[in-house]
Amino acid sequence: MWRTRSAGQATSTALVVLVFRVLSHISLSASSKFGAWPGILEERVKPLWCVYDNRVDERPWRFQPRDVPTAQCTAVVYAYLGLSPGGRNLTSYKPDFDFGPEGLRAVSALKRRHHHRPRLRALLAVGGPDMDSRLFAEPVEGVEGARSALMANAEQWLRVLGFDGLLVHINRPESFTTSDYTINEFVFAFYEYLKKRGKFFSLILPPEEDRRSTYFSPYSYAQCVFERSPVF
């Protein structure tokens, strides 16, 4: 049975599709620059990552996970979770939304509903521009087991909620470190930990060239598939 939509609903859906197409194009443009590097990309298909932001309920045009144009995506990203004080655990800053009917589980379920994209990944992003990046300090520096605790906790979130991998977005590394050495160790350790457990890991780089070159060396992001995008 077909259901008719109001003009407002149709316009909203069209805008959603357009937004996701734009975000995907930005991600593709950013990543294609690095596509020739051997050993970095796990897939031959150019990545198109569609971002589902959990601040969607704060915006005038509401859309739901089912509005994500998964036919055009290689991954759908749920952004963002945060970190607890000390950085040892992932945490939700919006639990009513994240654990509600349009939240985490609805996004991870997209890969099961769309059988025409068997390679579609559901990824969970942590950090971002709204989180204090200093919460990453202890796990990045390996203080008193903080790194191993965070890795184990993140893997549990991924497994329980049905996500395929984790995206780490340290938006302001300068707030807690002066070099890329400790971040390199953190990235490589996290990548290896999740890879052994069948999970994907990616690092999201800041859009500013000076912060990328100062705090993130090619050593760290050559260890995993990564995405550089001003969307995040």
TrEMBL record:
<protein>
    <recommendedName>
        <fullName>GH18 domain-containing protein</fullName>
    </recommendedName>
</protein>
<dbReference type="GO" id="GO:0005975">
    <property type="term" value="P:carbohydrate metabolic process"/>
</dbReference>
<dbReference type="InterPro" id="IPR050314">
    <property type="entry name" value="Glycosyl_Hydrlase_18"/>
</dbReference>
<keyword id="KW-0732">Signal</keyword>
<dbReference type="InterPro" id="IPR001223">
    <property type="entry name" value="Glyco_hydro18_cat"/>
</dbReference>
<dbReference type="Pfam" id="PF00704">
    <property type="entry name" value="Glyco_hydro_18"/>
</dbReference>
<dbReference type="GO" id="GO:0005576">
    <property type="term" value="C:extracellular region"/>
</dbReference>
<dbReference type="InterPro" id="IPR017853">
    <property type="entry name" value="GH"/>
</dbReference>
<dbReference type="GO" id="GO:0006032">
    <property type="term" value="P:chitin catabolic process"/>
</dbReference>
<feature type="domain" description="GH18">
    <location>
        <begin position="46"/>
        <end position="232"/>
    </location>
</feature>
<feature type="signal peptide">
    <location>
        <begin position="1"/>
        <end position="29"/>
    </location>
</feature>
<dbReference type="GO" id="GO:0008061">
    <property type="term" value="F:chitin binding"/>
</dbReference>
<dbReference type="GO" id="GO:0004568">
    <property type="term" value="F:chitinase activity"/>
</dbReference>
